[in-house]
């Protein structure tokens, strides 16, 4: 069993299929209840744990069971871990974030060994086999080998060949690159399209809920048409008062949608620098983590006074939202 076997669990693709094929799979897959998962700040991730053996199970069921069992098998940290119930979407989002951090940490080492990988490929070993052996995504390893074997000088040309592998002259290399694209559902172009599609779906959902509440706003396209380069998903035409998870009231001028689970690492390293620019331009705002967020995010915001409130649904589960002029919006 290879460590990368667990990396092959489809993160957001599985979530998308779960939602869209729920009726078709109802007779085969029992509904999954939120699973209690222990989270910690260490270097380990789901990729270090082999998946359980699921004979006779469908591919989707095996991958969902793998993700759930892997989470339940994680040891409790001695530093005092955070425990909370998470959904399937949140579980897959956590796994994907940890996988991305793992890949970023080891990419430099693999790039330094790319010539050795080329020699192994020329000796007859397939790119997919090399990727499984070194625990690295097949698509990213194939991209490195294409750059060297095809003697490509620019990253733009490499991207062009990976998006259109039929342009690769070598028959064997072309066939193996297409195979790596097909089996890698974490970093391939198809996985990127699924991720963007899910993000756009939740942005549209936010806009639909705002319209249902008769809240005036400008979306990202309208803001960019006005020449604004850095824009949130929604800028409110009238400031709105919302209540966070701690029961505190906040006045927000914009809302940003995040179709992921908000871990402290992701929020501090990626989301916070982005929303800080929004705060500097538009004032305080709100971030919606549709799959939930860990308590460490709220603690970080309280310590730094970032003028950003985080919620896991919109409208938030409160009795009412309030405009600054005192008008009350009854929630749905």
Question: Describe it for me?
Answer:
The chain has 332 residues and is α+β, with helices and mostly antiparallel strands. The protein folds into two domains: 4-183, no CATH class; 215-330, Trna Endonuclease, Chain: A, domain 1 (3-Layer(aba) Sandwich), CATH 3.40.1350. The chain is built from 14 helices and nine strands. It is found in: Cytoplasm; Nucleus. InterPro entries: CDIN1.
Topology:
Elements (H helix, E strand, L loop, with lengths): L3 H4 L4 H9 L1 H4 L9 E5 L19 H14 L9 E5 L1 H25 L1 H9 L4 H8 L3 H12 L5 H9 L7 H13 L5 H24 L4 E3 H6 L8 E10 L5 E10 L5 H19 L2 E5 L5 H10 L3 E4 L8 E4 L4 E3 L2
Parallel strand pairs: 5-6, 6-7
Antiparallel strand pairs: 1-2, 3-4, 4-5, 4-8, 8-9
Protein name: CDAN1-interacting nuclease 1
InterPro entries: CDIN1
Pfam families: TPD (PF14811)
How would you describe this structure in keywords?
332 residues; Trna Endonuclease, Chain: A, domain 1; 2 domains; two-stranded antiparallel ribbon; disordered N terminus; CDIN1; nucleus; cytoplasm; CDAN1-interacting nuclease 1
Give the helix/strand class. alpha+beta
Low confidence ranges? 1-14, 20-83
* Shape, per Cα inertia axes: elongated
Question: Mean pLDDT, nearest integer?
Answer: 76
- Rounded to an integer, what's the Rg over CA atoms? 22 Å
- Summarize the helix and strand pattern as letters: HHHEHEHHHHHHHEHEEHEHEEE
Count of DSSP H/I helices? 14
